[in-house]
Amino acid sequence: MHAIEKYFTFETLGTNLKTEVIAGLTTFVSMLYILFVNPSVLGAAGMDKGAVFTATGLTAAIATIFMGIVARYPIGIAPGLGVNAFFAYSVVIGMKVPWQTAMAGVLIAALIFLLLTFFKIRETIINIIPQNLKIAIAAGIGLFITFIGLVNAGIVTKNEATMVGLGHLTSPTTLLAIFGLVITIILMARKVPAAIFIGMVITTLAGMLTGLIALPNHLVASVPSLSPTFGVAFNHLSEINSLQLWTVVLTFLIVTFFDTARTMIGLATQAGFMKNGKMPRAGAALMSDAVGMTAGAILGTSPTSAYVESSAGMAVGGRSGFTSVITGFCFLLALFFSPLLTVITSQVTAPALIVVGILMASNLRDIDWDDLAIAAPAFLIVIGMPLTYSISDGIALGFILYPIMMIATKRAKQVHPLMYVMAVIFLIFLFAINR
């Protein structure tokens, strides 16, 4: 125990073993929902839910334990909500790309991501994209996954006259989803730790009591096999051979590039880790995400992200990497509870998507709405994602308009040359897929 306390500098950080264990458990419970939501989202793309469940848990464990031991921060990492929706609903369902090929795209993006992080040029690339556009991407993804959640809940449905409309709110399954959404929002508003997970549990129990969800045959079972997804990406690398698919790779890179960095800096600021405006061991922290994304692509899941829910563990005193180690090992133990997948229906996961979308949409307040040259491209990104049902299309619209507006307002020199390159790539991409 003394070696652990010394390595993780408990005394310097003003913490102890008991506090770190409690913090690790708290972060785990707060993040646990992704273990059941991710298989639901990627399952819509035709992937084996059991294999995705295992891949999600293992990826979270690998990345979070790496974060704890190497970077020594109490930050959890797991496959992210939003980018998994892009993978399933935009790439596989929308573009009709086989999930195996899409996973190969994730692997290529992950390997590029790993190299850029290793050679310490990731932060340079992040700075190329204007802050307002980065904010818009986060907010747009929030609206996108909220729309998916509303559809999965049955609250929003197709309408031939108006394209979309209100669903059948009296449907028992829709009422269950609405109940879960209200409960989860109330828990979030009251700042209850692990509100999303607790909301899912309450919704599931309500579904069982009303007969809308069948009781599981058992609670514990052997870990589901990874064979349907493990290493599949390697066998389909040669299929990444078109502008459309390379644009998908670029989108994975753009979204994952700054998402984790932004979350990590926010968490580090909240916990008081920042020194002179900089995050110590930032390279190791970013490498944790790169390792997680690479491992996830090999195991068979969408890209990873640092979880803002880590703040729950910090709130109860978690300050060292040992918090992350505990969180990671908890994900390994959770792999034996795969039978619960049968009770986590779309009505149970829909509230989680909607609530996370609400949280991500809060980024809208930071966009400079008074500068139309910036606000217009940002707005197209935000509104384009849900209305085109594609994260990449939304990004494309904003990235194309941004340099045009900057040239028109005589600020062309403020635009990084690579932004012009990306604008041309996205322009060709839009015309290529819509010809």
UniProtKB/TrEMBL annotation:
UniProt topology in membrane: Multi-pass membrane protein
A cellular-component GO term for this protein: plasma membrane
Source domain of life: Bacteria
Family of this protein: Belongs to the nucleobase:cation symporter-2 (NCS2) (TC 2.A.40) family. Azg-like subfamily.
Signal sequence region: none
Organism of this sequence: Weissella halotolerans DSM 20190
Gene Ontology molecular-function annotations: purine nucleobase transmembrane transporter activity
Compartment(s) where it occurs, according to its Swiss-Prot or TrEMBL record: Cell membrane
InterPro entries given in the database record: Azg-like, Azg-like_bact_archaea, NCS2
Bilayer-crossing regions: 21-45, 51-70, 77-95, 101-121, 133-157, 169-187, 194-215, 243-261, 282-301, 321-341, 348-364, 376-405, 417-433
Name of the protein in question: Xanthine uracil vitamin C permease
Swiss-Prot/TrEMBL keywords: Cell membrane, Membrane, Transmembrane, Transmembrane helix, Transport
